[in-house]
Amino acid sequence: MRVTTFARWGAFLLLTMLGAVAHAQGLSGDVPTIVIRDGTETAHRIAIVPFAFEGAGVPPETDVSEVVRMDLARSGQFRTLEKDRVVEFPTRGNEIKFPTWKILDQQYITVGRVMDAEGGALRVEFELFEVASGRSMLGLAITGQRSDLRGVAHQVADLVYEKITNVRGAFWTRIAYVTAAGVQPNIQYALMVADSDGYNPQVVVKSREPLLSPSWSPDGRKLAYVSFERGDSAIYIQEIATGSRQVISNRKGINGAPSFSPDGNRLALTLSYLGNPDIFVMDLGSREITRITSQMSIDTEAVWTPDGQNLIFTSDRAGKPQLYQVPATGGDASRVTFAGEYNAKASIAYDGSKIAMAQGAGNVYRIAVLNRSKGSQVTMVSPGSVDESPSFAPNGSMLLYAATDGPRGVLYAVSADGRVRQRLVLADGDVREPSWGPFRQR
Fold first, then answer.
1. pTM, whole model, 2 decimals?
2. pLDDT of 40
3. Which of 25, 74, 289, 378 is most buried as measured by Cβ atoms within 10 A of its Cβ?
4. CA angle, 272 as apex, 269 and 275 as ends, to 5°?
5. Residue 270 in contact with residue 262, Cβ under 8 Å?
6. Residues of 158-176 as b/e, b for ≥16 C-beta within 10 angstroms?
7. Could you tell me how far CA 8 lies from the centroid of its own chain?
8. What pLDDT shows up at residue 7?
């Protein structure tokens, strides 16, 4: 059985955490199937009509409209019309026969086309209509290189999502995760960055020693992570675009679980050089650290509340792992979770109203979401037996988490209510430690 995150800390098994389960199997040929549980009664019904290619050259490999359809479908906020139920193929608003889409029980319809632009680029024009009234809601064009047409499609999905839900879409974002490929003693670890749906994976850093705990800077330009390439754990911060990096902490003992503050000026981290693992905060300008917790227990996995005033962390000070909250300047900690005998690895939604965590009982660990605005109400959003490391999308609508598929680790994206779930198609190897990045600058 895979060892859970907190148990790894407790047993100080960081060096072998990934290696014990690594396999040289690829996921790149998998089909990204979306699983819908029960459906969502309030989901918006929308038809994404296949976009026409009106360019002079070879049609692009990327099917823009299909990327948009899949983005909206896996969000849980939309029920997209299946491709084989699309009976008419308008490409412009004046070609839409709205009675047809009323019969198909659609609330919205998006049409579009792809055409040539200057410099070999492609221009994607799209329109969104309300079917009942025939009202035009959106009409825009986005130009991008042929090689980045998936990125253009994600931006189209974001704009449609925002226009209908009044919430900014998070499809044109990136995720980070760690892979381990090969078998002992020749395992190759890699810190990867990919699109939010797992496509376009890129290597940030490779190592023959474990890599752990990627954490995005608020501007999306840097990743903090843990590496054992020096023999012991050390925390690095690396520029994604340039690859330049620096060691932030390599003190004696554990250097782990980095987390950027919302303003990017501080880093929460776990250090054990004074004894037990405790939470510290580092000022990234001066590199001075402040000790936040001091307990005869394991305190780790601190994440920031959106206002930057508090930290939510995991501690076994009450006997078993639970989540606690403490001021980011230090002070008394208060317990946050009470339901369930094991709660660890918090991820906080953008407005602070929800906390996702790995919740365990016996040998079963699943992803739970605590709705703080509704007291202690908890919703289970994953069905697996060892699910862990949840990470909220920047708009709070979806979560990433790590799960097991036989002997290997895989990643799932799930709607925040748990009703819609999709396994991501990722690069080869055992996949762990997902971290959903911030919004990209428009």
1. 0.91
2. 64
3. 74
4. 145
5. no
6. bbbbeebeeeebbbbbbbb
7. 22
8. 57
CA distance 374 to 323: 17
Question: What token pair was written down for 329?
Answer: 């300047």
Contact predicate 278/257, CB 8 Å: no
Strands of the sheet containing 211-216, edge to edge, are: 211-216, 222-227, 234-239, 245-249
Whether the CB-CB separation of 278 and 312 falls below 8 Å is answered with no
Indicate whether 32 pLDDT > 60: no
Contact 317, 342 (CB under 8 A): no
Lowest mean pLDDT among 29-43, 51-65, 340-354: 29-43
User: What would the DSSP string read from start to end of 159-221?
Assistant: HHHHHHHSS---SS-EEEEEEEES-TT--EEEEEEEETTS-S-EEEEEESS-EEEEEE-TTSS
Burial of residue 188 (number of CB atoms within 10 Å: 0-12, 13-18, 19+): middle
Residue appearing with tokens 């290696």: 19
Token pair belonging to 437: 């990045």
DSSP-assigned beta bridge partners for residue 267: 260, 282
User: Tokens at residue 69, please?
Assistant: 């359809």
Q: Across residues 310-323, what is the average pLDDT?
A: 96
- pLDDT exceeds cutoff 60 at 16: no
Q: Looking at this protein, which amino acid is placed at residue 222?
A: K
Q: How far apart are CA 51 and CA 67, in angstroms?
A: 11
281-290 long-range Cβ contacts below 8 angstroms, 24+ apart: 281/311, 281/328, 281/329, 282/248, 282/249, 284/237, 284/248, 287/248, 289/249, 290/329, 290/330
What confidence category does residue 24 fall into, taking pLDDT thresholds of 50, 70 and 90? Answer: very low
What pairs with residue 367 in β-bridges?
A: 358
Ramachandran bin of 54, using left for φ above 0, alpha for ψ from -120 to 50, beta for the remaining angles: alpha
Mean per-residue pLDDT, 46-67: 95
Nearest alpha carbon to residue 400 among 409, 150, 155? 409
Task: Identify the DSSP state of 81.
Answer: P
What distance, in Å, lies between the first and last C-alpha atoms of the chain?
43
Q: Which two tokens stand for residue 351?
A: 């407005």
Residue 363: predicted pLDDT = 86
Three-class DSSP category at 146? helix
111: closest CA among 145, 166, 68, 144? 68
d(CA 323, CA 304): 13
Contact 399, 381 (CB under 8 A): yes
